[in-house]
Amino acid sequence: MSSGINDLNTAIYTALNVSAITTLATGGVYHVKAPQGTAYPFITYFAVINVQEDTFTEWVNDALIQVDVWSDSNSAAESGEIVEDIAGVMDDKVLTISGYDNNSKSIRQNTRLLYEDENNVFHQVMEYTVRWHKSM
To answer: What is the pTM of this model?
Structure first.
């Protein structure tokens, strides 16, 4: 049985790539890494860890997902506004993961604000846990 991580990545991209978010994150939404030269602000996301379990009646997947907001604005306000919009589409929401039961609620674990001195960029990190399963 595959882990379904590619299907989860597609579901996250679909959730984040909506006009409420991309109107502000004009540089786009990228899996793992934005292309060199991407204009700020932009979003990246990836699975930090993915664990799969066979309960003999279903496949259960638990993943920790990191969503990063990158902004070169003069303050954290721009990235903070994007974080609020991401929260609106990701906090306690059910993600539609192809081929899996639609009980994949994303639960935010934390949000941190960082400042990257070497390139003068605000970096907000959001972490979500997502659990999804498939009946056998």
So the answer is: 0.88
Confidence of residue 63 (pLDDT cuts 50, 70, 90): confident
pLDDT of residue 57: 58
Residue for token pair 């999804």: 132
Return d(Cα 50, Cα 4) in angstroms, integer.
Answer: 10
